[in-house]
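Q: What would this chain look like folded?
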Amino acid sequence: MKKITLLPVLLVCMVFFFSACCKKQIKKQQPIPEKKVEAPKPVQNPVTKEEPKPQPKEEVASRPMPAKPALPTYHEVKKGECLWKIAEYKEIYNDPFMWPLIYRANKDKIKDPDLIFPKQVFSIPRDYTESQKQDAIHFAKTRGPWSLWDGK
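A: My prediction, written as C-alpha cells:
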C-alpha cells in the first residue's frame, strides 16, 4: 500500500524538479541609448575675430585590396604527415581525396605513397584538369585497404 502512494508522489516531485531545471529564464534587455558625438567646434580668435580656415577634407584614397597569398607550389613534409593530410590542408587542395595528384607529380621522390619522410619536398600541381581531379578522387576512394605498395 505504501508503494502505491509513494510512487505518484515521487513522480510529481521528479516532474517538478525537471521542469524547474529545464525552464529558460528570458530576460528582456533594454536597448542601450545611443549617444550622439558632436565634433568640436572650431575656436575663433577673440582678438582678431578671424574666421577659422576651413580644413581640407581628407579624400578617401582608393587602397588596393590586399592580394590573396599565392597558393604554395611546394610542400616540405613534417613529422606525422601523410599525402592524405597534406592534400587536406586548405592552402593545398582542401580535399584529402586529391592526394594522388601529389603522388603522381612526385613519383620520382615517392616509392610508396603510404610511406613519406620528414623534410622531403614535394611539388604541388596547380595546373590539373577536371578530368585529372576526378581520376585522382576515384583512385583514392577505390584503392582498397592498405597493403604494401605494389606500384599500381
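The chain has four helices and two strands.
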